[in-house]
Amino acid sequence: MRRGNRYSIFRPLTVAFALALSLPATAQQNTGAQAMPGIGTPAAMIDTNGGDNSTEQGSGRAWTISPRIGLSLTATDHANISYGQGESDLITEISPGIRIDARTVRLRGYLDYALRGQFYSKNNGSRHQNALNTFATLEAIDDWFFVDASGNISQQSISAFGPQSPSDASINNNSTETSTYRISPYIRGTIGGLADYTVRYNATTTRADDSTGTNLDTSQWIGQLRGGTPFHSLRWNLDANRQTADYANGRKTDADLTRLLLTYLITPQFSISASAGWERNDYASLDQESKNTHGYGFDWNPTPRTQISAFMERRFFGDGHRLSISHRFPNSSIRYTDTRDVSVLPNQFATAGMGSLYDLYYDYFAYLIPDPAARSAFVQTLLASSGLNPNQQVVSGFLSTQASKQRQQQLAFVLFGARNSLTLQFNRSENSAFSAALASTGDDFSQSSKIRQTGVSLTFSHRLSALSNLNVTAGRQKSSGSNTGGVDLDTTTTLYQISLATKLGAKTNGSLSARRAKYDSDTNPYTENALTATLLYTY
Hints:
- By secondary structure, this protein is mostly beta strands.
- It has helices at about 1-30, 355-365, 370-385, and strands spanning about 65-75, 90-105, 105-120, 125-140, 145-155, 175-190, 195-210, 215-230, 235-245, 250-265, 270-280, 290-305, 305-315, 320-330, 330-345, 405-415, 420-435, 450-465, 470-480, 490-505, 510-520, 525-539.
- The model is unreliable at about 1-35, about 45-60 and about 350-355 (pLDDT under 50).
């Protein structure tokens, strides 16, 4: 049996080293190494077309298909972090992938998929993981009927209080592959030149591989009317929203919300707004409950680079609010958001909004690359060539079998220079269960009615040359809860990582990274040190 295991280990290693030797050589047969669009790239040098030169003149069609294959070797002293006393291991990962970008007259979108095969010399033999990020918009009928579609497959933490993975290659019983798909047809137009209308239907399905996770199907109808009044500065919006969330391991909930919003433009840069509405749901009760709502807020854009928006509303759970402050400097940007609202999966995932490094840079380049598909392609290339993990998150989130009240605060700062860049991310969230859902079990809310998570991450990147980048990352995440059983639920994860990324050829990137992770917990603490070498070849 041991001999069979040993051969099963050597086989992927042999393939891996063969690829390692062949890919750079293949790449060098091309036109030679080119300067990579590293993190230190000045904004003025960015190709706002996303690097796509495949446009067919006169046809209006543009498709880009980029296959790739990645290879990594990781030596770690704690491969299985599900147990406090783990053993060392050598992990080989082979990850073929493909990137497809579509920019046609009617279809605009992208699909990025990778299949990650992971082979362990001592733990559990082998396994595979899927990674998907896709979004597309189809204009089915000219300027009237549209269809949005999106999908995401990633590794998610099951519990906020369990071990947090320093890498997707780590063996962790608290991590599971979770997929979310959404289809959203909608129509938009004008009624007699008096009002604009939008009617949208969202259908979302979320599936988790682990039996202790959650499966969820949501359906949502959204209708909106927007128009003006005889008073030139006064405009109105009428919104109606109906959502059904069906948790496989929890309750099925229905929520309706109707709101009339009046907006008065005091100056071209400053406006105030007030709302009145009605809502009905069964979040806090087993029966439907109704309540009137009202709110007020303002929007202020003192300069083209500065946006401030605030709105507070009286809701059935208390005061809800949203606050957003952003400012863009010539080579940097800062954004702060603060929201309090009802949250259901997949919005509870940390990958929503500014959760990941990819999300942060995708938002940062919005003003330079307005097209979503082109921007996504650029960000993916930027992070891959710089040796940065696009899925790096400040807070890993957790799976839930019920809706919750969520307070979310996020701060992001990005600084770009000719050779250096600095990325700061801060996230703080507080999720509280509704009283009617406390009896449902299986998730973290069965241990604590209120879950707090705080995370901070700092990444520094230095361009050593036209071909190489040095990256240093430090991050810390803390989760806490109030367990009536007397067990301390506080956990803290700290991660330090340094990496060197370089362009080995026209189509080949390589990186070498070292990390140290520490997880503090009363039940299962661990410390891990790891060294990873990676090659990425794009055809």
